[in-house]
Structure formats: structure tokens, C-alpha cells
Amino acid sequence: MVIVTSGSPSKFLAWNVAQALKAQYLNTEVKHFPDGETYVRFLGEVATEEVIVVQSLALQPNDFLIELFLMLDALKDLKAKRVITVLPYFAYARQDERFESGEAISLKTVSRLIEAAGADYIFTIDSHRHRVIEQDTLTTIPLHDLTAMGALAKHMNNIHTLHNPAVIGPDAEAGAWAKTAADALSVDYDALEKKRLDAETVEIRPRKLNLNDRDVLIVDDIISTGNTIIKAIDVLKKNGAKDIYVACTHPLLVLNALVRIYEAGAIDVVGTDTVPSAISYVSVAPVIAEAIKKLQ
Ligand code: R5P
């Protein structure tokens, strides 16, 4: 039997993954002691079963990581057969190298701790770890990144009439996500890049496409403060883009990001349920379920 469970942040997503897999959903009790410590209990048996733990690490990453460690270690103690860990939002992944001397590389630390706690397999979704050249150095267990970009692009294309659209990543690193989204719609893609014109002037512009009079779908992994997207909208408008749509996998949406993006001129903004939010119209449950089916 396959069991899908989660801690406090991802119960509904875990429920949907269980439905998609025709698996059993197992509820957990999570509570906090007066001193702040976390308590986790599985409300059913897991011995000899394959258990999928769905645990997003968004917005309260430290609390949710502790829940995850307690769950993984308990599952091993309780003799689960195999523990597949799905991190729809993988917190701490942006610090994927030592940018300044002396910095902790949080991606490496957190990956190793998750493995040590008992994960046999890790799935992430549009995780911000593309600068890590040697993925194998993160963990000794398989770590596989899934993508919601195709589902996001199809959703936007289904609910809007996009005129001669192009998909744009707001920076060089988002170019790969733009390609995945564009491939799903069979349209062009590009990324914005910084070009130094002289010692004092840096211009941001599309790498190759002429976007004049074209609709644009901007895609990115994360919208946090919204500053990256707002800057991109400004650049795209200056480059003649017509209607601008925005999609992201992880809508963290801090500091009033959503209103500010609409104020900047976006027609629509859509995200997934890796982080439950006002714009989480696309579920990643089918993406997770498909990947897990391939493992079985
Ligand atoms: C950065 O490298 C990421 O891909 C996102 O572009 C970034 O995290 C978005 O953050 P914000 O919304 O705060 O600009």
C-alpha cells in the first residue's frame, strides 16, 4: 500500500496527491509545546508501507523543517518500507553557493539534514538550485526536480486569448523555465539580460526576441517581494510588449507583492499550490503523482 502524509503546511496538497495516486491519505497531529517545541504524531500505521511525505517549506521554513525531520525519523523508527520526500517548495535553496566569504551554504546543509533524517528519495519542484553544478554532491540519495511550468503555461493559455505570445524569464536563470513553459505552448521564449553599455550604464533587455506588439507571459520560480517581476514588466513595456501575464510556481507574495505587480500593469498573475495563496489556481498534485508513478 502507498500512504501519503504531510505535516501542517501541505495537508490539502497531500490529500490531492493521494487522490491522484489512489493511495491512502494519513493524517498527522502537529502541535507546539508552550516552550515552542514541536510535536508530531502519525494517526495510523506505517510499518512496511511506502510512505510519501509532502511538506512545503514556505513562509515558516524553520518550523516546517523541524516537522519534516521529526516525521522522517519517526517513519524510519516505525519501520516504513521506503520514505519518499516531496518538497513542493524547497526553502533555503537560493543560498546555493558561498557568495561572500564565511557564508553557510544553506542548500547543502538542509539537503544533507533531510537525507540524514531518513528520506530515501527527494522530489522538489522548480527548485532554485540551478547554480549547483554537481547535483550529486548535495545528497547520496536521488534528488529529482520536477516542473510546474508546463501546467502554468497551459492554464494561462486556457483562460486568456494570448496574441502572438512569447514566454520570458525575468533573468538569465529563468531562461530554462521560460523554455519549458514555451515548449508546452509551442511558442518562442527568451530571457531578460543585463547589458553594460558603458562604465555607468546597465541596460536590461530581451536577449534575442523583438517583443514589439506581442503578448508576453513572464515565468519565474518564485514571486517573493515581486520586485523582479515588476522590473521585468517595466522593461517589457519599454520594449513594446502588449498584454503582460505572469506565472510563478511558488507564490510567496510577501510585502503586498500581488497588488504591486497588478499596479505595474500585469493583466493576470497565477501561481501553484506549492504555497497556498490568493493566486494558487494550478495544482502541482498531478505533476507529483506522475513522477511517483514512474518510481513504482
Ligand atoms: C531569483 O533568483 C528568483 O528566481 C526569483 O526571481 C526571486 O526569488 C524573486 O524574488 P522577488 O519577488 O523578491 O524579486
The helix-strand sequence is EHEEEEHEHEEHEHEEEHEHEEH
Class per helix and strand makeup: alpha/beta
User: What characteristic shape results from the CA principal axes?
Assistant: globular
Radius of gyration: 20 Å
Give the overall pLDDT as a whole number.
Answer: 95
Low-confidence stretches: none
Q: Report the biggest beta sheet as strand number plus sense, adding barrel if it closes.
A: 7 strands, mixed
Distance between the termini: 11 Å
β-sheet strand percentage: 25-35%
Biggest β-sheet: strands ordered side by side in the sheet: 11-10-9-12-13-14-15
Measured as a percent range, the helix fraction is 25-40%
* Strand tally: 15
What's the helix count? Answer: 8
Query: Which hetero ligands occur in this complex?
Result: ribose-5-phosphate
What do these coordinates show?
The protein has 296 residues and is an alpha/beta fold. Helices cover 31% and strands 27% of the residues. The chain contains eight helices and 15 strands. The protein has a seven-stranded mixed sheet, with helices on both faces. It has a six-stranded parallel sheet with strand order 2-1-5-6-7-8, sandwiched between helices. Strand 9 (166-169), helix 5 and strand 10 form a beta-alpha-beta unit. The chain is globular and about 60 Å long. The N and C termini lie close together (11 Å). The mean pLDDT is 95.
